[in-house]
Structure formats: C-alpha cells, structure tokens
Amino acid sequence: MDDYMLLNLVIFDHYRFSHKLLFLIGTCKATAKFRVLQQQAYGFLHNDPQPGAAIFVAQCLYVLPIFESHCEGFSHLIISALRHFLKVGNGMNGLSKAKILAAKLFLAIVDGTLHHEERVLVKILEVFDVSLSNIQKAMHDTDEKDQTCQMAKVLVEQYISRLVESQSYMTAVSLLEHFSIRESGESFLLKMLDSKEYRAAEKWATFMGKPILCTLVREYVDRKLQKHAFDVIRQNNLRDEFPEIYHQYKERQVYLAMEAGYMEKVEELCERYSLEGFINVKELEESIPKHRYLQLDELSIKEVVWVDEANGLLDATRHIEECKVVGIDCEWKPNYEKGSSPNKVSIMQIASDNKVYILDLIKLYEDASDVLDDCLTHILHSPRVLKLGYNFQCDVKQLAQSYGQLQCFNHYDMLLDIQNVFKEPRGGLSGLAKKILGTGLNKTRRNSNWEQRPLTQLQLEYAALDAAVLIHIFRHVRGYTESAGDQDKRSKIEWKSHIVSHIDNSKMSKKEAKRGKAKTDKVPQSVEIKELTEQT
Question: How far apart are the C-alpha atoms of 211 and 45, rounded to whole Å?
C-alpha cells in the first residue's frame, strides 16, 4: 500500500465516522443524508486532492473493501461525487492514469482478489469510461497498443458468461452495452425472458437494435405480456411493424375501463386513440350491473356548489366560517409519466353538514389569486373550525407545490386526519366508509381528468362525496365502539389526541425545509375542543 492509499484510508476512516454519526442522529430520510455526504465528497474533490481527483477516487476504491458493511455505500458516494465533478468539466488532470487504475480495479474484481458489488463495478466502468484498450494495457502493464484488444475482449466475455450463469442478467447486459459486444443471440434473450428479467431483456434488445426488439415484442405477445409488448412498441416507435398489436392493446384498455364501470375513461380513451365501433357509452353504463355505493342524498347533502369566481368564493367562505366542522379533500389530474412532476391541484372540496363547495383552484388562482389567498387563509388558519381530512399530509404537500406563492397553504390550524384515527391497513377511505357507515365509495373516477371543464356530473358527485363522508365518519367516531379481542368488553376509539392544532408548512425555516418535515403541535385537551366537538 503506497502513501496515497494510506492517506485515503485515513481520510475515509474519518468519512466512515461522519457517515455513521449522520445516519444515527439525523432526522431526515436516508436519501437526504446521502446527498449531504455527497456534497461533502464533491467539495473534497473540488479542493484538488493529489495526485488528481480521478486518481484519488480510483485509489479509494481499492481500499474501501476494508470497511466491509460500509463499502458499498461509500463506493456509491464517491463515484457519484466524481461523476458530478467530471460532468462540470473538472478532474481532467491524471484522467488517463485513472482509467488504467480503474481497469486494474476491474481485473482485481473479476479474479476475486478484491470485492465490490456488481452495481459498483458497472458504475466504475461507466464513470471512468474504461475501454477494452484500457483493460488490455492494464493486463500487460505496458504502453504497447493491440488494436484488436483480443485478450481483453476474451476476458470480459468470459466474465459476462459467468454473470449469465449466475443469472446476473442486468449486470451482464450493462457490460455488453458498455464494451459494445454484440455477439449474443436470441437464446440470450429467451434466457432473460424465462427468468422474468424483463428490464434486462428490454435494455439488451434496445442496444441490439430493431431486429431483436421485434423478436422481443413477438415473445411478449406469445407469453401474453401485452402491456410489455405495447410499451416496447411505443418507446421504440415500432407502430408500423406491429399495427394490430398496438391497436389491440388500446382496445383492451377501453374494455378494462368498461368492466370497471369507468365510463368517463371509456370516452377519453376512445377519443384519444380514435377508436370506433364501441357501443354507446350511456347504453353500456346502463347494462353493467350496479354495485351498491354511498350516495350524496344518504349524507343529507342538499346542494353541491361549483365555485370559480370571486363572489362565489366569498359566499362560500362566509358559510364555512360559521361551521364548527368541515370535511376537506383535493383532486388533481394523474400523471403517468415516470419521473415527471405531479400536475397542479385542480379542485378543493369543502363540505359542511348539508352543502359541498367545489373550488376551481386553477381558475380562481388565475383570475382572483388575492381573493383566493385571503378566503382560504380565513378557513385553513381558523382555530374555530375543525378541518377533517383523509391522508391530508399528501394534499398539504401537493397544494404547497402547486400554489407556493399563496400564503394560505403555509400553515393549517385545527386538523384531524381520519386516517390517523383508524390506521386502516387496506381499503382507504372507501373501506373505512364501508366499515363505519356500512357502504363504501365508488372510486372508479378517482384517476379521471380533473382539469377538464366542465367536470361531468359523476365527477362532481365523486368529489363531493369524498369531502362529505368525512363529516359522517367523524360523527360516528365519537360514539363508535369496536370489539376488544375475544372479550365482551368494548372500548371507544381515541380520536381527540389526533387533532393537530397547528401545522407549519411554510418555507420560513430553511432547517425544517431541508428536513422535509412540517412542524406540528398536538392540541391540548381543552374546554374549547370539548365545546367544538360536542356541537357537531
């Protein structure tokens, strides 16, 4: 071990202690902790450690296996820091030597003299951009150039064969792609499919090109994996090669929506895919057997009011401020694109005993943002109105992201999340309604397009029910009893302790924002709460 490696060992012993301490005492999630450490590592590389950042990282990767259980975490940490460092145009000093060191590291891992996880191995090859010529040079430790790199290629192929035998298909595919080795045939594809390694199969087929992609689609169809086949066709622009399969999958989506009774989705899909030949949607809806779901009139709701202008919002606010308890819910258009940001919250439903207001947040924000901010501040910040929600933290987060410039969503007063009272493992709000009220909610319209205007009557009813049912569940909570095991004793559900008097969702505290946590205060069991709940 040379002096530089010894120095690296000392440095990473310090990092190991910092890493362990941060993970033990930190209050934020592991991902946030990792990013903090990554920034520290990046800062260290920016200080130009000798004999160069890339060489320093390569040498660190030699000594990290000493740390055993911390090895993989530290390896990902410094590799990701180096990736970012090189991406911004730094670290060119000594990069050629670092490539050879990384190639030697690869050889040591392959022959078993050094242990690193397969994912780390792939990252080493990618970040240092190790080529077959680098491996050839590392094998002979000479500057002689072998244009064919035959020995290096044979060694890599032998290692890939070992990976395939052990069914490490994703690693094998990553190496084939990295070294541009295209000699594997369809039998390799079939092995991955037989092992249900679909991601690896798709990655390899994409690398190999259209002929293998077409083979993959046909195999998916033969194996009745239509969704996978459709995704490959769509992502690789193979619609002309498989027009019937592409069309059949679109029709299948419509039939699934029909079977679920999701009529708005049927209309949406037919329009989106330009599908014809389906029977009239209204006739279809009438032909489907009806399930028993909770209806608005059963909850004594006399009126559902659509609010999309300032005067209507002011009227709604006056009514809501006179209530002791309201139910609140939100809806937004689902986003099915992986990695993309969620859509804006489209509507907010606020229910009283006999009326539900549905606020068009998008239009109100565009036309009367000041009035919207003022009215919702009066409602959400009021300590005199108990706000009921279900999984309300999710709505809080979405509202803050959608309308961050409004002060009304910075904090909330007097909240009771019904989900926290019951902690039902399955069924959501519909399951809870069925348990408490005897009838569930129709959730088939949950993922509809909430940004379309006007909303359908069925969408309005769905939205209103989600807010109104909270009040009726709350009424039953106070007198609701449940069996205590096999005994005859019955115990009331504790709910008052779940009332939160204040949630601070503002960006005023950078420390809290970094932690990703809202500050919450439990409400004291005061006379005010007793009076508030007894009047509902």
Answer: 44
Mean pLDDT check: name the lowest of 30-34, 230-234, 332-336, 473-477. 30-34
Same domain, 433 and 370: yes
Instruction: Please classify residue 273 by burial: count the beta carbons closer than 10 Å to its beta carbon, then call 0-12 exposed, 13-18 middle and 19+ buried.
Output: middle
Spatial distance between the Cα atoms of 50 and 290, rounded to a whole number of angstroms: 74
* Domain end marker among 112, 130, 148: 130
Query: What is the C-alpha radius of gyration for the chain, rounded to an integer number of angstroms?
Result: 30
The secondary element (H helix, E strand) that includes residue 247 is helix 243-259
The answer to whether residues 470 and 520 belong to one domain is yes
Query: Is 174 contained in some domain?
Result: no
Over residues 436-475, the pLDDT tens digits come to: 888 888 766 666 789 999 998 888 999 999 999 999 999 8
Same domain, 283 and 300: no
Distance between CA atoms of 174 and 434, rounded to whole angstroms? 49
pLDDT of residue 65: 86
Angle at 232 between CA 227 and CA 238, to 5 degrees: 120
On whether both 273 and 399 belong to a single domain, the answer is: no
Mean pLDDT of the chain: 80
Question: Could you report the per-residue pLDDT of 237-286, keeping only the tens digit for each?
Answer: 998 999 888 777 777 777 666 655 566 666 666 766 666 655 555 555 55
Query: For residue 24, is it within any domain?
Result: yes
491: three-class secondary structure by DSSP: strand
Instruction: Tell me the C-alpha distance between 528 and 536, whole Å.
Output: 13
CB 467 within 8 A of CB 460: no
3-state secondary structure (DSSP) of residue 66: helix
